[in-house]
User: Fold these one by one.
Assistant:
Number 1:
Amino acid sequence: MSTPLRSLTAAALLLGATTLAQAEEVRVAVAANFTAAMKEIATAFEQATGHSTRISYGSTGKLYTQIVNGAPFDVFLAADQRRPALLVEEGRASAPFTYAIGELALWSADPALITDGAALLESGAFERLAIANPKTAPYGAAAMEVLESLGLAETLAPKLVRGDNIAQTYQFVATGNAELGFVALAQIALDPSGSRWTVEPSHYRPIRQDAVLLDGAGSNPAAQALLDYLQDEAARAVITRYGYATD
Amino acid sequence: MSLDLTPVWLTLKLATLTTAVLLVVGTPLAWWLSQTRSRLKQIVATLVALPLVLPPTVLGFYLLLLLGPHGPIGALTERLGLGTLPFTFAGLVVGSVLYSLPFMVQPVHNAFEAIGQRPLEVAATLRASPLARFLDVALPLALPGLLTGAVLAFAHTVGEFGVILMIGGNIPGETKVLSVAIYDHVESLEWAQAHWLAGGMVLFSFLVVLMMNLLGQRMRRIGHG
């Protein structure tokens, strides 16, 4: 091999090694309600740090089960505090913090349907009310709390349809298959279509959403970088814009 | 641990109804496929086979759009006062019939083809009408195929998951079938319940396939005898 070519190869190898050391991929499990905000944050994070992200969306319960069973994630953004706390307890994760506080909205694709949300629920003048599966999705559990707080859990039970996660719940309502449903405010915050009722927070416990660093991350610098970025002003601005509160 | 068996009964009801509908719809379709010389034959046979290769999500997606209030079929069922089909048991039957169609039609079609034209021609010379040829000659001879189709369609419907997850809405007693109940239990870490239902499914599937194998062996023996 000629000398210039050899030094070129060495340079290329060196370059490859340094980019590898600096830019890592972070694998993130994200609760479905945070999908839209996360996409925006991930793009900004990638531009700011040079790291890349690989994101899986699903219900908090499903993602938790996958993590417990060895799913290859570095960071978990849950829709509750319970699952992250469980993971910390089991020694699978560390450093939980609240990255967003979610709000619940009653939403219909029909612009004229919801004027007074509570009154509409009380009247029962609809065929189907979509919620996320309360067993696996915190927004579904919150929706059940609202119905219980209004004393309607039993009367409306026959009209409930359950989405596998809050994204499917949104889809049920958006396609009109359910006239209305409880979705995350974040899913409709930037979209003025349809009609909505932002549920008064007194009807349900605050949906505090915690993030944790998973043990699978090892010494992946991108994982910690993402968690730091989530607490950064830039990310918090995005999170607030999507209708979440932050600490 | 409390084990709710409603999903089991619901699944059996769904599979039984789906199989019954498929016997009524699929048998004439298979007969037409075996007799026709129409150029449409290959097109129809391909359409029937499509659910074998399509991901259930494709079927679920289009069913949701077609059967929903903004879809043509949904608009029709609403005008007929039937409401819309997604999130109802009837909707699951419609989805399952489409999903399991090839499992019924293909074995029956093969059985009809295997009879050949000869017995039918003999019946025709004895002045049997086309309907009589179908009912009195073809159907009895194709009985093993019908049985195979029915068992496969039934078992395939019991094992259905993706389509139901997309158009069912997980309603207990209405659309929460066995596979969805298992999924729910696993997601909620209720593994004891998941084990009972999932283990039961393994046993059930084993028995179905075993029955098919024994049946096939017996039919071959009769065929040779």
Number 2:
Amino acid sequence: MSKKTAERKAVARKDMTYRQWIWKEMKKNKVAYALIAPYMVVFTLFTITPVLLSVVISFTDFNMLQWPNFVGLENYINLFFADDIFLIAAQNTLIFAVIVGPASYIMSFLVAWFINELPPRIRAVVTLVFYSPSIAGQVYLIWGTLFSADSYGWVNATLMEIGFITEPVAWFQDADYVMPLCIVVALWTSLGTSFLSFIAGLQGVDKAQFEAGAVDGIRNRWQELWYITLPNMKPQLMFGAVMAITGAFGFGGVVTALCGFPSVDYAAHTIMHHLEDYGTQRYEIGYSSAIATVLFLIMIGTNMVIKKALSKVGT
Amino acid sequence: MAKKLRTRKHKVVLARSAGGDAGITVILFLLGIFMFLPMAYVLMQSLKPLDELWMYPPRFYVMNPTLSNYKDLFTLMNSSWVPFSRYIFNTIFTSVAGTFGHLFIASMAAYALAKIKFPGGRTIFKTIQTSLMFHSTVTAITSFILMSTFKMVDTYLAIIIPAWGSTLGLYLMKQFMDSGITDAVLESARLDGASEIKTYWTIAMPMVKPAWLTLIVYSFQGLWNQGSSIYIYSEQLKSFNYAIGQITAGGIKRAGASAASTVLMMAVPILVFVITQSNIIETMGSSGMKD
């Protein structure tokens, strides 16, 4: 912001208006526009346009076959007042995001922090152990095998052995267990990009600051974390938060793979599933666009709240 | 000098209690087991002979490791309707075309956004940064409408072109260029009469090798792990990951082959990460969001 006003001040010249100056700058830097043009075309087509189009279509009854009619807020009214399953989905998404988002965020940070002082080679191995579940394709399906519904499943057999249960439990088909299990699997795959970003950020904190802190009376590692490490990490913490939001809200695919679609009694039905259901199976594009728009708003809202919260770190 | 250093070190060590060290080690160890056990179990399952896969009570460890599951997997691959080489080709072709197109156009854009000051640049970058949050599933349906308008549905282009526009790679590249290339170097190149495009290609790009390696790894991982896509319905155009999922989904008889396929699929991204880890971490050093 201040940079912008400085720019404006710099062109407080008599020979041209601000608009003329902008035009001159644009002409002078036309190579910059040429360089970003190819990317911007693709980005606009497949990211910006779909988002804007979702918002527009959400006010219509578009169904891929007929010319859409404008229906005003009808889709939103139906969504919030007539669609019980959406309310279940919203509730599940909220529970999911409130648990998985912060938990994965804190876990990523704590692990990165714990391993920060290990020797580089050991740190590289530990990083690999924690990071690999998030990149290893569909390896999460192994949770389905571990928690398989019959007594050949390792978890069932082990629990029966020690007498904890007498009958095998159909874990991923039982409404009581589906949600907690999916949360565990989500956490298991959640040490991803933000984790790496935290590791790198911690490596980048100037060591001299810790020494200065020790002189100034920092007594234990928690004070050191709060007063020195975290304030230095703010940019990474912000980036990690954005990644955590994306992860927590975009987790539908794993749930579908493990619990089927729809999950039993909609116990793990999220907004993402509801969106896919209406968008790719029922072709009620207008309605599904309203769901997508609600999701966009939730994501942006969460992001703003987190930005606020992170600005308080280290104070 | 030496004495001074020791006292300094001593003070830093004061902030670390032995109890805390022990607690952290225990927590890290437990979390590590939680992360590692399922991965180890896949590997075990893939090496178990049939009688061990269906043994009661089931065992975690394999007693007589065998490669028969991997052989079964290849037999199953050979008997599929569309030759398996076709699925492999699809995945490799789309991964390579998607990754290199993305690398090329995203690095150009990143250079312009990081190193040239021009009207609108900051707004554009803010927009890209915001869209990091929008998971592709949320935009999938409207993207589908756009793609059918451009007649891209059910072609390789439906996979390749959107990959070019992915945001994470560009974001990381731009951030890395911000801190990794000093303006003085570029300035002297410009003074020597190098055009902006030449400066980008011959000066800036060689300086940000970790960033483009990271971009390649991320893009490749995403494309390699792609399963079924709503944009593709011809069997001949589907991905390796999808196909391997289909043949191993055939019930309990294929549990061993399924585990073997999971191991094969996960080996590639993990191996790529092992090779590039130090570069990726270096890139992540500048991944932070400044405002």
